[in-house]
Design a protein that fits this description.
This protein has 367 residues and is an alpha+beta fold. It is 66% helix and 11% strand. It folds into two domains: 188 residues, no CATH class; 133 residues, Heat Shock Protein 90 (2-Layer Sandwich), CATH 3.30.565.10. A five-stranded mixed sheet has the order 1-2-3-5-4, with helices on one face. The two termini are 37 Å apart.
C-alpha cells in the first residue's frame, strides 16, 4: 500500500492552496483595506462599514480554524461563509454610494474577490469567474452613475481589470494545480494497485512452491510406489496412507479458501475424506472462532486427519476453543500405526491406545 504522504497528494496540495489564498485575503483586509477604511472614515456610514469588515474578518477566522484543524470548509460551512461574504459586500455597497466606488473609498471591491477565491477556488472556473466579476461589475456601475470623464473612467477601468485579471489568473493557476494533483493521485493509486497485484502474485507463487514441497515429501513417493507396484493397493496400510495423503491435499486446498472459520473448514476437509469411504464422524465444537496462523492450523489439523484415517466405521472429533488456547481431539474405533511426521513447533500432540481405540489430541499453544 502507498504511504499516507503519497495517497493524500491532492488533499495536501489543495490545503496548501487554501492556506495561501487565505493569507492573501487576510493581508489585503488588515493592511490596505483597513488603512483605507480608517483614512476615509465617515460618521454616517462607519457603523455599516465596520459590520461588513467584521463579517469578512469572521470568515477569515473560521477559515483559519479549519486549516489549523486540517479539515477544509465544505458543504454547509463553506456556503455559510460564502453567504457572509455576500452579506458583507451588500452592506458595504449600501454604506458607500455607488458614485463613491470608483474613488479610493472602495476598500471592499478587491477584498471580496480574494475571499471568493479562498472559499470557491476548487469549483469550476466559470463559477469562480462569475463570483469574481460580481463586485467588479458593481464598481463599473458606479463609474457609469458617477458620470466621470473618459480619462478617469479609463484609469479606473484599468484598475478594475488589473484586480479582476490578477484574481482570475490565480483562479486559473489553482485550477491547473488541482488537476495536476488529481492526475498525480490517480497515477499513484494505479501504481499502488499494480504493486499490490505483484505482491499478491509473488505470495501466491511462494504458497504454491510451499504446497508442492509438502506434497513432494509425502504424496509423490506414495504415488510413485503405487505406480511401480511397490505397494499393494488392497492392503489396509496402503489405503490408510492414501487416506492420510488425500486428507492432507484437501486441507492444503482448503487453506486458500476465504471463510469465516478457517480451522473448522480445514478440519472439515479431512473429515470429508473419511466420510466418503463410509466412516461416520461425529463433530462437537465449543467456543467461538478465533484467528490462528496457517502454520498453527496445519499442526492442529494434520495429526487429527491422520488419526481419522485409522477409523474403520466411526470416529468422534471434538474442538474446544477458549481464550487461553485451542484443543482438538479425535477418538477412532480402530488402532493403527500413525505415519511419521515432523515434530510440531507450535502445538503439543499426544496419543493413546486402549480398548481397541485410538485417542489423539493436539493443543495450542505448546506448553
Amino acid at each position: 500500500m502507498a504511504d499516507v504522504g503519497t495517497v493524500l497528494v491532492e488533499t495536501r496540495l489543495l490545503m496548501a492552496i487554501r492556506a495561501s489564498l487565505l493569507v492573501v485575503a487576510l493581508t489585503v483586509q488588515f493592511v490596505p483595506a483597513l488603512a483605507t477604511l480608517v483614512h476615509n472614515t465617515r460618521a454616517q456610514t462607519l457603523a455599516w462599514e465596520l459590520v461588513a469588515f467584521a463579517l469578512l474578518a469572521t470568515v477569515g477566522v473560521v477559515g483559519s480554524r479549519s486549516l489549523v484543524r486540517g479539515t477544509p470548509l465544505t458543504g454547509t460551512g463553506r456556503w455559510s461563509c460564502a453567504a457572509a461574504v455576500v452579506l458583507a459586500a451588500v452592506v458595504a455597497s449600501v454604506a458607500l454610494p455607488l458614485e463613491s466606488l470608483p474613488r479610493g473609498e472602495n476598500w471592499f471591491i478587491g477584498l471580496v474577490g480574494w475571499y471568493w477565491l479562498f472559499l470557491l477556488f476548487d469549483l469550476s472556473l466559470p463559477v469562480v469567474a462569475a463570483f469574481l466579476a460580481a463586485p467588479m461589475l458593481l464598481a463599473v456601475l458606479g463609474v457609469v452613475l458617477a458620470g466621470y470623464s473618459a480619462v478617469r473612467t479609463a484609469d479606473f477601468g484599468t484598475s478594475v481589470v488589473s484586480i479582476f485579471g490578477l484574481q482570475l489568473g490565480v483562479a486559473m493557476t489553482a485550477s491547473v494545480v488541482r488537476r495536476i494533483a488529481v492526475d498525480a493521485e490517480v497515477a499513484l493509486r494505479a501504481e499502488d494497485e499494480v504493486r499490490t497485484r505483484e505482491e499478491a502474485a509473488a505470495h501466491t507463487h511462494r504458497d504454491h512452491e510451499r504446497r508442492y514441497g509438502e506434497l513432494v515429501a509425502t504424496t509423490v513417493p506414495l504415488l510413485a510406489a503405487l505406480a511401480h507396484g511397490a505397494l499393494d493397493p488392497a492392503a489396509d496400510s496402503t489405503r490408510r496412507r492414501c487416506a492420510v495423503e488425500a486428507a492432507r491435499m484437501r486441507r492444503l486446498f482448503a487453506e486458500r479458501d476465504t471463510v469465516a472459520d478457517p480451522l473448522l473448514h480445514e478440519l472439515g476437509a479431512g473429515i470429508d475424506v473419511v466420510a466418503r469411504r463410509g466412516v461416520s464422524v461425529q463433530l462437537a465444537v465449543r467456543g467461538e472462532a478465533r484467528e490462528l496462523d496457517v502454520v498453527v492450523r496445519r499442526e492442529l489439523v494434520e495429526p487429527i486427519a491422520a488419526a481419522l484415517a485409522c477409523a474403520a466405521s466411526a470416529a468422534r472429533v471434538t474442538v474446544l476453543r477458549r481464550a487461553d488456547g485451542v484443543r482438538l481431539s479425535v477418538v477412532t474405533d480402530r488402532v493403527c500405526e500413525l505415519p511419521p511426521r515432523a515434530s510440531p513447533r507450535h502445538t503439543l500432540v499426544s496419543a493413546a491406545r486402549r480398548e481397541g481405540k485410538l485417542w489423539l489430541e493436539t493443543v495450542w499453544p505448546r506448553r
